[in-house]
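Narrative of activities, Objective 1.

The group set out to show that a structural description can be obtained from nothing but a protein's sequence at a throughput compatible with the screening campaign. Below is one input-output pair from the validation batch, recorded exactly as produced.
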Amino acid sequence: MKILNKSKLEEVLNRLGENADVYVPMSKGLQSGFYPWKSLEGGKDELMLDALNVYQPPKSVVFPQTERMYSLYQEGKGLKIEETYENDEPRVIFGARACDIKGIICMDEVFLTGGYEESFYKARRESTTIVANACYEPGPSCFCAAMGVDPLNPEGADVIIRDTGDAYIWEALTEKGEALSSTIKDLLEEKELSVPEAKPFIQQVDYDGVAEKLKGMFEHPIWDRTSEACLNCGICTYICPSCYCFDIQVKMYGHEGYRFRCWDSCMYEEYTREAGGGNPRPTGRERFRNRFLHKLEFFTERYGHPLCTGCGRCIVVCPAGINITSIISEAKEADLDA
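Output recorded for this entry:
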């Protein structure tokens, strides 16, 4: 089998960075996320491949928080598009966990299926190679397996690395993975190593049957109780690896300008406000209900699996202590006649 000795990791990342933008889990001060490898500042930043999850998932690599779409020019009463900005430069996500890759797969289904392909997302996605970091010891907030995610064999990975202590087992799975491996073949060794022993999950939840049950719970009093503590701050949507709500805005300077897309949140009142002033989800309770029904029911109905990938980030960061696994359990045990 192919082995990457950890002593050669920096050399590998530098080599990969010669032909692509390489994004790695990294801490920058109080922030952590997937940042460009070339942005690492010695003595200030820290590579976090050993961490289970950084705060910001790698979805921003293929779906940036803010992205310019096209420039435009006003001609009379009309607008002329001058240039579009589909970015197909090669990029590598190195060290993503299975839950985060599943989040990207969810976005693939939204942006690339159903008879329409979103060109800005497609350009980034097709030029991205993913090196997954298999998980053998779940954290206290992890529950990905309950949501159909295999932490040991991440779906959608081009390469899987398995941490054995001083080295990674390196497994190329796709043509992209083989091509990436060929660029560092002189840095990989042939050696037989044993994979780590997988440890059990601490966070337990049973999602089986919940999507079907939620179909009859739109007006259930469960939403009054569970939404009471929610601040509608939206932090859960921004650190979620699969949330994809966005807004499109335009900036004009005289007759010239550009249109850009930026992340938005279903937890905000303005997100669902209609042009005429109406709003189908005017209260925090309704927005809370929509978020969890989308994660646990609506997406499952359309794509066959939940939009939640079990990463546990929302459990960690929620200032009100809301836990999605508790909501799943409450829904599973709820009395539909209540």
